Predict the 3D structure of the following.
Amino acid sequence: MLVVATGGDDPAGAEQAGDLNGARVVSAAHLSLKLAAISELAISSLAERGVSLRDARIIALTVERFTVGHVLEEQSPPPDVTGFDLETFRAAHPASVTAIQEYFEPGRSVDDLFRDCLAVVIAGAAVVGRQ
């Protein structure tokens, strides 16, 4: 497996790779045979359905990067909310706060959010693939 993972400010970083969480290892993997196999399957599957290789690669890369970004955010430590005033924030961002509250009605989770956001990415990819 050809994985290049760096940790911290040390460019060699290989010894620190064990300190990285899963998403950081994948996002730092510039050349990985496993990731290449996943990309190959995604690209070839799209191409078999009439999507150009160029668009198939863009679609696969977009989904890969969206997924890694989502996982990185999910694995990040919670922000420091010391001094955060929700009412001031709500007054400045009423549409955002209401939209978040409405989305996370009882029974909805961050996993639902991932699936719904990915559905938007895929719907956009379907439009690109038809062009």
Summary: The longest helix spans residues 53-75. The mean pLDDT is 80. Residues 32-130 form one domain. The helical segments are 22-28, 33-48, 53-75, 86-92, 94-103, 110-130.
